Every structure is written in structure tokens, then in C-alpha cells.
Amino acid sequence: MKASTEYKKAHKADFGHERIEVLYEDEWIAVIFKPSGMLSVPYPGSKAKTALAVLEQIMRKKGTWAKNHRPFTVHRLDRDTSGVMMFALSEAAQKKIMDSWHKMVTERLYRAVAENPTGRNAPKPLPDSGLIDDELAYNAYNVGFVPKPGDKPSFSKLTKQAVKNHYNKSRDQQSIYERNLTVRGGKAEFKTITARTHYKVILRGKTHTLFELSLDTGRKNQIRAHLASKGYPLAGDENYRAKTNPFGRLALHARTLEFDHPFTHEHLKFEVAEPEEWERFLATDGTQMNADGLKAGKGKLHTDALKLGK
After folding, report:
1. What is the pLDDT of residue 215?
2. Residue 178, CA distances (Å) to 101, 112, 144, 172, 226 in order
3. What is the pLDDT averaged over residues 134-160?
4. In 3D, which of 237, 208, 243 has the Cα closest to residue 221?
């Protein structure tokens, strides 16, 4: 068992027993809260519990599941990211949502606790708000990163296999790493993709910062890669060499999902606050409000499902 898994097992109260909460369900969509530690959807070879499968179980128990009325994926959250997710409840609804996602979704907000830049060569602290638009690449383990000039894929077995798959597999069959390589004459180079992350500092502590973030693009690992590239790896993020894990989990939470219903056109907003221990942790860390006087919301981990008239 990996050291990080052992740590989670010892410190995460619901380790292995994570549960979803259904915030909303109608004929066409379901909106849920996914806990940290649970996969959104299955991937080949994995037998781990997924939010998709648990939602199916809940629908079966309620008697709302049918062959033509069951969950279909429209977006994902990383396994260790908690927060609000939407599922379509038919193939037709899935297609309509995915075709109009960027138009129908009016706001997606995340909260994250990141380590502050440290060390002699550390980047300067980020301003109170801004845009990170560095392009992303993916390594052989499908982890996103901001490449530096001259970065090239390592000459590993995985890269050799990726080059081979470039010629022998269709794009749909390739891994994220394979799809994001340029192969010329049997040699691989990173192919970067656009990524745009808007951020706002909510609280600054001596060692950590609480951010609020929104995405113009929904790339895998986008928030984690962008903040890490600026010297702010998320707390608990071993993939980006975080040195601290104060919460026994990745400190990334999908807080708000606001959208126009794809069929009824009703304006809906669903919000689940990040764990209150995040703010308490920064409070003991010597916090400062940002230039706009913003601070993290108080109170319990709670959910608000709001229907807003147009």
C-alpha cells in the first residue's frame, strides 16, 4: 500500500466508505455531491467504487432507474477532489448537455488550499486575483504540467509504447499522454493544449493560501498544474510535490455549479461549502484578507440547492 494511501486510511474518517449525496434529480439530470476519495466514473481495470455506480444504486432503490433512464457522464472530478457534479439521465440528455456545456453552465467555482512558495528560487507571490493561461502538457502517467522550454518526453518504456500506439491505435483508444504527443519520425514531443484558470485569493496565511478558482477550459489537472507552476502546490497533492497534508486529502473542492437547465431552461445553482476546517487551519496560520476584503464562508460543511428565477 502506498504511503499516501496508508495516511488516508489512518486519518480520513470515511476512508473506503465514502457516500454521495443527491442534491437534485428530475427526468433529465441528477446533481450530486461527490466526496473526496471516490472516482467519478470507472476506468479500465479498476474495481473501485464510483459516483456513477453509487448513483445507479440509489436510483434502483428508489425505483427511478430504467434502461433508458440511468446516469450518463457529462463531466468529471478527480478522485481526490470533492464537490458538486452533474449526470445526465439518458443518452439524449447526455448529448444535449455535452453539446451545449459551455453555453448552459454559467459558473463553476472551486476552492483550494495551496502551500505558499518557499525556497531561495521561489516565484513571487501571486497578486490577489488574476488569470493563469499557461499551456499544459501531460507526462507518461497522464499527469498535467506546465512545460518549461526544452522539456521533452523521457526515453522510457511508456514513451516507446506511446509512439507505437500513435501508429497502431485510434485516438479514442489512446491514453491522455498518447493523445497529447506529437510523433515525427518515430520520435515524440510534447503537444501543449490551451488552459485558462481565473483565481482569486480568499485568505493568505504564513504557510498556505485559500484560493477561489474558475475555469475557461476544463483540462485534466488544470487547477493543480497551474497553481503548482506558480509555486503553489495544493496541500496533500503528492503528484505536484506538496510537502504538507493537513487534511488527509487533496485540498481541492468543486464548490459551485450554476447552469440553465438544458430542457426546462430554469436557472439552477448548487453550492456545497468547502470543509470549515480549511478556514480554521488558515486562521491558526496567521491569515490576512485579500485586497477586496474577502474571506472564506463560515459554518458547517453544508449544501444549498437554489432555484433562481430568470
Report:
1. 94
2. 26, 29, 13, 10, 21
3. 88
4. 237
